[in-house]
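quick q for whoever's on today - can somebody do inverse folding on this one?? i tried earlier but teh output was garbage lol. tokens:
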């Protein structure tokens, strides 16, 4: 996604068929490999301090504004104030409008601080504001306002409950929260528990809120006035965004540019256990990560747009959007309803899109069912098309079908249309993506779309490695280190992973570069456990480097489960394997160190489950939720589903990694069980499904699973 205007006067990226990374001579130690660096940038380790690159997010937008003032930047689907119906097209604001509004919001915040409404202790900079909303243009307006006035942003996941919000607000000492209206009552209720928080700003204006509630009165007052009055009783000021901007227009203040080492944000991890940790992110961290990601990507053109739907509270989407701003790509915000994601895609027709495996797996299941698994001539033609394309990938000199290939017109074009038909860049991150899914989309999207996978962590700005576009042998790998990053593999002796292993070195992945965070906020213990004295981030993931210098994730050191017989299991790997089945909408795999096997809880995909019941001769009376739930309780149906799922682990999982007992759950996982990137919160899920888990293990003791 590199911009079409001159931006990166650097060497070309690595040859996709040659060596992509190599060890720096003399850097190996007795228990680790040497430091691997990208072959094109072995001496370039200071991206964010190079003259060619912006060093703060403020500079990033300033540059884009200077180059492209009239280019559309943020888009949304407006809704009818009376009916709530979403428009069938996107509305847009250009760079100049974004510039105008960030000044108003920032100036308004400083005016409120000067008036004493926000309790900052007299500080003009460095205090924390928070966003609590789904992805929308206002999220970025507030973000850009904060970065233009040297304020610090933290973002609360939209699905967080009041308890975790209370923790984050107090931990970060948040002074003001910009909130979706639906969260304002919860924030007011926290007033006595969050003494630093004195200002709440609704990102929907009062006229919109009052219209939306159909003129309903609360205690004799319109909804907006009722919220203001309630807040006042708690010592809180409740405003809408228009009021903040109006105050800003009366008290315009010059920008207060941050320095590269100024704190940009406190990023709360969406961890699967305990309270989230607050990762400190500097402007240097953010800009170096974005510059590294942009090098070597396909260029963009005026009018290119990207879809925003992954949560902006997560580092993945956040650095991607800063990168898009750098590139001048318009960002169209999905409506926030995941059931309408395909509708958003069809309207926007994005040129760029990032995804997590859960989303791509769902697309894969739907498209695969309509193509490879389709009936009659349609299915036969699709299978022939993919077999031909896969043969091209597996050839000594891999190739993709050309645009004039007959299969492209009849089969692959339809897959591209599912993504809007204009996609030039599709990236997967956040969790491992099955190689067969990546192969499927690579051949279906064709030569004009780069389909790549990357790897990183919140503590490293989600940036470490990424596959090189055009590398058609990278399936299962996540690519070489990005420019400005270096990686080495550290021995993990108790798991048998050594840097001296043959044919490839193996060990824990350690990452270093300007993208690596300085530490966790108010948490010296975890900081020291995560970053060593030489600045290496210890990822907890196990990897290997192949002969080309490409990294492959092969195991997990952290959160590994040790079964009673002494075998280690990475539960996410097991879940990702079974999740490839069209039957699986959601899955939770559970293990116990006092047991010798795993059990699984699966929420079936309704349409696929109905078809499965018909196939095994157990057709329900109807496809109603009640009838499907009834079928899920039948032992013979569970055994048949178990056998069906078992076909997906052949050659991929060892015996001890396979689930031996299965429960089919009619209800989707409650949102409290999932992180915003759809990872399971294991400690909570374990308690939630305790009775079911105990029952599955008791069944294992009484009778073996049917294979």
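ok took a stab at it. sequence:
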């Amino acid at each position: 996604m590199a911009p079409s205007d001159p931006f990166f006067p650097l060497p070309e990226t690595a040859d996709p068929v040659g060596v992509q990374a190599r060890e720096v001579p003399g850097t190996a130690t007795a228990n680790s490999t040497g430091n691997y660096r990208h072959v094109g940038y072995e001496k370039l380790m200071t991206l964010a301090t190079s003259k060619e690159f912006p060093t703060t997010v403020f500079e990033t937008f300033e540059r884009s504004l200077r180059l492209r003032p009239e280019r559309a930047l943020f888009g949304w689907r407006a809704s009818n104030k009376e009916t709530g119906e979403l428009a069938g097209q996107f509305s847009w604001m250009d760079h100049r409008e974004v510039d105008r509004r960030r000044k108003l919001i920032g100036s308004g915040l400083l005016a409120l601080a000067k008036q004493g409404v926000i309790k900052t202790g007299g500080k003009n900079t460095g205090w924390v504001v928070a966003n609590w909303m789904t992805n929308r243009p206002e999220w970025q307006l507030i973000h850009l306002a904060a970065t233009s006035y040297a304020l610090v942003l933290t973002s609360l996941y939209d699905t967080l409950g009041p308890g975790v919000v209370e923790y984050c607000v107090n931990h970060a000492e948040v002074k003001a929260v910009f909130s979706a209206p639906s969260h304002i009552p919860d924030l007011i209720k926290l007033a006595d528990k969050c003494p630093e928080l004195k200002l709440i700003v609704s990102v929907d204006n009062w006229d919109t809120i009052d219209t939306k509630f159909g003129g309903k009165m609360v205690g004799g007052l319109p909804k907006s006035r009722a919220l203001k009055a309630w807040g006042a009783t708690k010592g809180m000021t409740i405003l809408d965004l228009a009021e903040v901007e109006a105050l800003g227009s009366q008290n315009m203040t010059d920008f207060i540019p941050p320095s590269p080492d100024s704190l940009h944000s406190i990023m709360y991890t969406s961890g699967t256990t305990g309270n989230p940790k607050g990762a400190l992110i500097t402007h240097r961290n953010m800009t170096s990560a974005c510059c590294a990601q942009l090098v070597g990507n396909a260029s963009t053109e005026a009018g290119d747009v990207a879809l925003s739907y992954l949560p902006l509270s997560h580092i993945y989407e956040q650095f991607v959007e800063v990168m898009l701003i750098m590139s001048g790509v318009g960002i169209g915000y999905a409506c926030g309803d995941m059931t309408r994601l395909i509708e958003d895609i069809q309207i926007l027709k994005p040129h760029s899109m990032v995804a997590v495996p859960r989303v791509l797996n769902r697309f894969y299941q739907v498209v695969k069912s309509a193509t490879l698994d389709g009936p009659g001539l349609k299915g036969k033609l699709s299978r022939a098309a993919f077999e031909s394309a896969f043969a091209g990938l597996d050839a000594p000199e891999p190739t993709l079908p050309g645009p004039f290939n007959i299969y492209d017109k009849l089969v692959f074009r339809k897959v591209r249309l599912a993504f809007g038909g204009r996609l030039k860049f599709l990236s997967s991150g956040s969790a491992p993506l099955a190689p067969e899914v990546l192969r499927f989309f690579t051949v279906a999207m064709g030569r004009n779309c780069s389909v790549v996978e990357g790897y990183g962590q919140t503590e490293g700005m989600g940036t470490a490695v990424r596959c090189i576009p055009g590398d058609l042998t990278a399936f299962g790998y996540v690519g070489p280190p990005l420019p400005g990053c270096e990686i080495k593999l550290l021995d993990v002796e108790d798991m048998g992973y050594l840097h001296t292993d043959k044919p490839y070195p193996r060990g824990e992945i350690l990452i270093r570069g300007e993208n690596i965070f300085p530490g966790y906020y108010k948490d010296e213990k975890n900081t020291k456990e995560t970053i060593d004295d030489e600045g290496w981030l210890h990822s907890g993931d196990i990897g290997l480097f192949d002969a080309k210098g490409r990294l492959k994730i092969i195991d997990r050191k952290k959160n590994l489960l040790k079964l009673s017989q002494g075998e280690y299991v990475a539960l996410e790997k097991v879940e990702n394997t079974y999740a490839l089945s069209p039957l699986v909408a959601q899955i939770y795999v559970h293990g116990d160190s006092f047991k010798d096997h795993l059990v699984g809880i699966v929420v079936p995909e309704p349409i696929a489950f109905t078809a499965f019941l018909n196939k095994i001769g157990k057709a329900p009376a109807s496809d109603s939720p009640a009838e499907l739930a009834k079928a899920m309780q039948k032992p013979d149906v569970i055994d048949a589903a178990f056998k069906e799922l078992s076909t997906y682990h052949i050659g991929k999982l060892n015996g001890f990694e396979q689930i031996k007992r299965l429960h089919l759950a009619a209800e989707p996982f409650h949102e409290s069980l999932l992180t915003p990137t759809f990872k399971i919160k294991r400690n909570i899920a374990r308690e939630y499904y305790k009775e079911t888990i105990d029952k599955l293990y008791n069944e294992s003791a009484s009778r073996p699973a049917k294979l």
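fwiw The longest strand covers residues 537-545. also The chain is about 35% helix and 20% strand. so keep that in mind when u check it
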